[in-house]
């Protein structure tokens, strides 16, 4: 299962009753929201409160901001305007709160593998912790009130990150996507709305938040995920017996071990092929965990951040190739 389901994320949208939505808040109002959320979580007597730190987004360089997006800790929209926004982040980066994005609070929990119940349980506990000191905007009929009507109700978006190289190579993702939309789910690129899938990484998430409970939404997502996993395994069995696919996998590892210059998109494509080769048993001396770490480490801003300097696109391609050679040899 972990060969296919990389991680699980549960995100809750919440707004404070006494303030307008962030799009209508002035700088002073946004600061009050940040202080209220920060105090509710970090000044709490709960043992979990000490795990968090508060980061003012306006104090970060553009490169650091983009790296946060690449590591799926914040949304692309959150860094589009950093003024009046803060990120409250746990030490292990598994829990975070975007403050003053589209809503006052976007609470997020990430867990490895398929762990929807565990991620939701943690998110629910954090939500309850905040609810002790904050008054959320809530309507008896509509549920939690959010700026975008598509989040009304539970305010919950649950998602799983999937590696689907066999289904992608079989050209059936478009058909699957159409069927999923009828079930209240959506599949898209790893960074969510508006992003293209790269390295055969897809994000599957619930679309319906109104008129359905959190538990029902999670159960639906879990069932569909299991079906997709089954389809991917069947597709892998079909394609991995092909000498052409085996050759592609072998060549991919060879290029990663020897290339002197490599682009971001090529690196992700080749790493995806190697990941498939590990899962099929063709590649035995490389760990899946290493490939997963490299898929994040080769991202442009994260690569530059880890090296502690700003790199030109050409310098990034050289450093990316060096990182891959050193990691895989």
Describe this structure in words.
The protein is α+β, with helices and mostly antiparallel strands and about 325 residues long. The protein has 2 domains: about 5-235, Glutamine synthetase/guanido kinase, catalytic domain (Creatine Kinase, Chain A, domain 2, 2-Layer Sandwich); about 245-329. Helix content is about 45%, strand content about 15%. It is built from 11 helices and 10 strands. The protein has helices at about 25-40, 60-70, 115-130, 165-170, 175-180, 215-240, 245-260, 265-280, 290-295, 300-305, 315-329, and strands spanning about 5-15, 50-55, 85-90, 95-100, 105-110, 140, 145, 155-165, 185-190, 200-205. The chain has an 8-stranded antiparallel sheet.
Q: Specify the biggest β-sheet.
A: 8 strands, antiparallel
Question: Judging by the overall fold, what is the CATH architecture of the largest domain?
Answer: 2-Layer Sandwich
What portion of residues is helical? Answer: 40-55%
Order of strands side by side in the largest beta sheet?
2-3-4-5-1-8-10-9
Spans of 5+ residues with little confidence (pLDDT < 50)? none
Tally of distinct domains: 2
- CATH fold group of the largest domain: Creatine Kinase, Chain A, domain 2
Distance linking N and C termini: 27 Å
What is the strand tally? 10
Tally of individual helices: 11
CATH class assignment of the largest domain: Alpha Beta
What share of the residues does DSSP label as strand, in percent?
15-25%
CATH superfamily of the largest domain: Glutamine synthetase/guanido kinase, catalytic domain
Radius of gyration from the CA trace?
A: 21 Å
Global structural class: alpha+beta
Shape verdict: globular
What letter string, H or E per element, gives the SSE order?
EHEHEEEHEEEHHEEHHHHHH
Whole-number mean pLDDT: 94
